[in-house]
Specification:
About 35% of the residues lie in helices and about 20% in strands. The protein is globular and about 50 Å long. It is of the alpha/beta class. Helix 2 crosses helix 7. It binds S-adenosylmethionine. S-adenosylmethionine (SAM) binds next to helix 3 and strand 3.
Amino acid sequence: MPHPRPQFDTDVAGQENEETDSAFGGSIRGSETSTLDSDILRYRVENGRTYHSYAIIFWTLVLEGDLYSAPIKNPQDVLDVETGTGIWAIDVADMIPSAIVKGIDLSPIQPSWIPPNVRFEVDDYNKEREHTNRFDLIHSREILGTVPDWVQFYKKALDSRFSALRPGGWMDSTEPLIHINSIHGPVAKDHPFNIWTTQFATISEQTGLLWDVAPHLKRWMEEAGFVNVTEKVVRVAIGKWPKAQKQKELGAWNQLRLDMGFGDFTERRMRNVLNWQNDEIMILVAKIRASVQNSKEGLFMHLYHVYGQKPGE
Ligand SMILES: C[S@@+](CC[C@H](N)C(=O)[O-])C[C@H]1O[C@@H](n2cnc3c(N)ncnc32)[C@H](O)[C@@H]1O
């Protein structure tokens, strides 16, 4: 299916020549990393939490300090679907002390030292439960490759047999587009990122779990029955190549989180679904990481923020 042309609400990547910092071509791991490194360490000490602080900083910068895009202030009953390490749920609970924030995940990988208003449950989101419509806000982020049917996924957020929204409550989803672009023009077919994308299309076909989801979220939310559905697309650099300070900082954090995280979800799927050998996987991941670390490639990606409201209020 062709991708709808994204409407750029925030042009983070900028244009070649005018906004490219030609003085910077390396990765964040060189001598220019000292500020970032100390940010990571300081953040860890202040919060006493030792997991993925670069991811927290990245997402906070993407939304310019906000934790979600939906137009709801001070939601009191909040659900984070497929919460992972639970960092979003913890941040919302810290930000709104009067709210009860619940995070659901199949894996018990959440920390035990959490704010008193967070509840983590090891559970399957697809399970029917006794809840009535109670949530003001349901949030999902980077759950690509885990949802068998996205229209059904969104319908559950409207259906009182599942963990559903109150009438007037908001669903808020964030997903990355898996196709990578460069300011220097089309990315070559045999670029490691494109090899990765092609392989993950095959993984989608074989598992029935789509990875190329971001441009379709709006349509799926509308098909499920949400109203006031809005899509915002943010373009984010991979690396410190943009000239503008804000974009450069965002690009640096994006570079770091991709560099550190890419292998995690790639290796298992390529081994289990595609039967790739370990050395083949390691070579592809190493090439992707080298590309991520090379700011001269001028790579950028798109993040889709989509939110919609449950009718009835
Ligand atoms: C990439 S992580 C999510 C990251 C997290 N949302 C964040 O922004 O930090 C995807 C998570 O989905 C969980 N998951 C997959 N299928 C699930 C299901 N049916 N119910 C609950 N959790 C599920 C996995 O255990 C994994 O932790």
